[in-house]
Amino acid sequence: MQCLRGAVKHAGRGVERLTSAVRGFGSSSQHFRANPPPWCTDADPPKVLITGGLGQLGVGLAKLLRRRFGKNNVILSDIRKPPSHVDHNGPFIFSDILDYKNLREIVVNNNISWLVHYSAVLSAVGENNVALAREVNITGLHNILDIATEHGLRLFVPSTIGAFGPSSPRDPAPELCVQRPRTIYGVSKVHAELMGEYYHHRYGLDFRCLRYPGIISADSQPGGGTTDYAVQIFHAAVKTGRFECNLRGDTRLPMMYIDDCLRATLEFLEAPAASLLGRTYNINATSFTPRDLVREIQKGLPDLEVTYNVDPIRQAIADGWPMALEDTAARRDWGWKHEYGLSELVRTMLTHIATGNQLAQTY
After folding, report:
1. Sorting pLDDT into bands at 50, 70 and 90, what band is 4?
2. CB 110: neighbour CB atoms within 10 A?
3. Residue 312: is its pLDDT beyond 50?
4. What's the gap between Cα 167 and its chain centre?
């Protein structure tokens, strides 16, 4: 299919105390479902390219997809040099989404069939560099859309709670409503949703999009988003026992543990096209405020001290976001179901961080 391109080219005692506390939470663990692949035995698995692969989600998704489809069938890409543990776990290549020719060569030379587009400048960083966010989040998306359409790829582009705005219903935010975000990140994500759905209806592109809540993970550092506090607090709780929060204590936002997020992404990618009544879906797990999170962490670490020093830019962004997402359609159309509530999320995060610190002290 010929597709028009855009004109733009382009821890000591603390650890011991925490270990004991975590045992007190209980021992139930969550795992990805080990369902067999949905295709027939004589069909080839997809060949997957992940852009922006060194961010919060890319490495984790690559690990999950490699278990599913084979190590060499999933290629991580980014513009940064990967850490050694990422480089050794499977194929990694340099890819700049603003370089159309390079991206097209990668798709053709590696026979890519699925493209997961994680490259993005996030909310707080984007407000400090609007020009960069516009170039990466919008111009880069146009390159991705054209290449995916030309080569018949299945394209996944994540959206976000940031795609909603102050005039959107907040508790919960439905899938179809007034959005009108007030950040360049949110504007670019609404643009991605609408462009992807347009390419689907106009050119037949297999475009798929999930609106992610704030994602919480122990394995990667926050990337400049408004919900970063919900990751940072765990590391501070274990290492120092003190944390300064940059949002008000009563700021309720939807959140999700990374295992739920990655599993949702895989299940959505594997869902038969005929079962999808839409192309952009909300997914929801749990919602909480900083104070809710502090109280839950203090069940295991009662000495945690938290102060509040509100960042007006991040607070203004959060005040325009939903408190929860309405996700009935995802549960109906492709069987989405979350596994981690607040207590399970906190228990798992503390366990991972405590274990990581103990291992670090061993060497």
Report:
1. very low
2. 17
3. yes
4. 24
The reply to whether 199 belongs to the active site is no
Answer yes or no: is pLDDT of 360 > 50.
Answer: no
Least confident range from 46-60, 65-79, 216-230, 235-249: namely 216-230
Q: Which amino acid is at 340?
A: Y
Cα dihedral 77, 113, 137, 256 in deg (nearest 10): -80
Out of 185, 203, 212, 257, pick the active-site residue.
185
> What are the backbone angles phi and psi of residue 308, rounded to the nearest 5°?
-125, 125
Residue 31 pLDDT > 70: no
Give CA–CA dist 162/190, Å, rounded: 9
Could you give the residue ranges of the DSSP H alpha helices within the chain?
12-25, 58-69, 84-87, 100-109, 123-128, 130-134, 140-150, 184-203, 229-239, 258-270, 290-298, 312-319, 328-333, 342-362
Alpha carbon separation from 34 to 53, 65, 114, 265, 327 (Å, rounded): 24, 12, 21, 15, 24
Give, in order, the Cα–Cα distances in Å from 255 to each of 229, 252, 325: 11, 9, 10
Q: How far apart are CA 21 and CA 15, in angstroms?
A: 10
